[in-house]
Design goal:
The structure is a single chain. The protein is mainly beta and 391 residues long. The strands form 7 sheets. Strands 1, 2, 3, 4, 6, 8, 11, 14 and 17 form a 9-stranded mixed sheet that branches. A 6-stranded mixed sheet has the order 9-12-15-18-23-25, with no helix packed on it. Strands 32, 33, 34, 35, 36 and 37 form a 6-stranded mixed sheet that branches.
Length: 391
């Protein structure tokens, strides 16, 4: 192994190593000191990375490229600006790794241990991602720092199983993983969550899959089901499906509601009522037999927004919203893509998206027609309508 201790000027590959003890061999790049990539850097790792120093003030692009599995490990946590993953057999994280801008999934999954949430890929602040799919996702834990809403790109093997978390405020840190396992006997967690121990006798619990979510703020989650979820074994119709969670306090399954449902019994999505994720060990999809009254759907006014700060039509003002604080507002563009989501909406929307997966966060939405739904959980009512945004 060759070891070097020297100053490398910033213009060399856009790197800056200030009196850093840095080593490399055929097996790994090992950082012992203070390593930094500058804004013009474009650096590729073709072997493992061991970070035992400071490596968290990076700009530019860092990529991992190999036909073999690569590993990131060490006593410290590297934080990249842009991250690209082209690793045929997966990028294994044995420590947590942060991203502050874009993660580009090209080939291979990100892998972490599923028995612990200590290691994860952390989307920090305004970070977002591209290219996720059934063979390009996080097979293990995903994290989110300083985010109010995040769709975790988690899954198992060749199956992507998103979970969207919408919280009442900005999470300092939330984490999520997906398990294609029977909750009655989870091999990864070494725990049993008896599907016969439940709040109601008629409550049905999936025995095929579950998610683990960490977060301490009042939140709602959106789960999806597909043909492999066998939702038709839990309910006859999508309206009878509910989100369920294993209560840490009660040691039983509890229904967490269905404030919004879309799709059919083979493929669809479901949003819970408000709860605190840390109160529940795991979450999955369940079914009821008329335990919950269906939501009544009502047409609300159509709105015209001109968010130009002239004091007229700058915000989406819904009359009487202060009398229904337990609500969820979702806004979709004309392609059906969610561009804004807010738990406990209080007339804050002024044409700016809060969804990084759609557009740059905090950027103004393009002029055009948008569809919105307002779900009021206490009265089990859903209001819907259209709005036109003009610059």
């Amino acid at each position: 192994m060759l070891k070097v201790k020297k100053q490398i000027t910033p213009f060399v590959l856009g790197l800056s190593l200030s009196l850093t003890l840095f080593s490399w061999s055929q097996d790994a790049v090992h950082n012992f000191g203070n390593l930094q990539f500058h804004a013009t850097a474009s650096v590729g790792f073709h072997i493992d990375l061991i970070d035992d120093g400071v490596f968290n003030n990076n700009k530019g692009l860092a990529g991992f490229y190999s036909s073999n599995r690569l590993t990131v490990s060490g006593s410290s946590n590297p934080v990249f600006n842009d991250l690209e993953i082209v690793v045929d057999n997966g990028l294994q994280l044995n420590t947590w790794v942060g991203v502050t801008n874009n993660t580009n999934f090209v080939i291979g999954n990100v892998l972490t241990q599923k028995g612990t949430s200590n290691n994860y890929l952390n989307f920090m602040d305004a970070a977002f991602y591209n290219g996720t799919g059934n063979t390009t996702h996080i097979n293990g834990y995903s994290g989110a720092t300083n985010k109010e809403i995040i769709t975790f790109p988690v899954g198992n093997g060749n199956r992507l199983r998103y979970l969207t978390l919408t919280s009442s405020a900005i999470n300092s840190l939330a984490k999520c993983a997906y398990y294609f396992e029977n909750p009655n006997n989870s091999v990864s967690l070494g725990m049993q969550f008896n599907t016969e121990s439940k709040e109601f006798d008629d409550l049905q619990i999936s025995e095929l899959e579950f998610w683990r979510l960490e977060g301490n703020l009042p939140s709602v989650v959106t789960l999806t089901w597909d043909i492999n979820s066998n939702a038709d074994e839990l309910a006859n119709t999508p309206e009878e499906l509910v989100v369920v969670g294993w209560s840490k306090a009660e040691n039983q399954w509890e229904q967490l509601g269905n404030s919004s449902i879309s799709g059919n019994i083979q493929v669809g999505s479901i949003t819970s009522n408000t709860f605190i994720p840390d109160d529940y060990e795991i979450l999955t999809i369940g079914g009821t037999d008329d335990l919950l009254e269906p939501f009544s759907v009502l047409e609300l006014d159509n709105y015209f927004l001109t968010p130009n700060d002239d004091g007229v039509n700058d915000y989406l003002i819904i009359d009487g919203i202060e009398n229904a604080p337990n609500n969820i507002l979702n806004i979709y563009n004309r392609y059906g893509v969610l561009v804004y989501s807010k738990l406990n909406y209080a007339n804050e929307f002024k044409g700016i998206s809060n969804r990084n997966s759609v557009v740059s966060r905090d950027s103004g939405l393009a002029s055009g027609i948008y569809f919105y739904t307002l779900t009021v959980q206490d009265t089990r009512q859903k209001f819907q309508g259209y709005m036109y945004i003009s610059e």
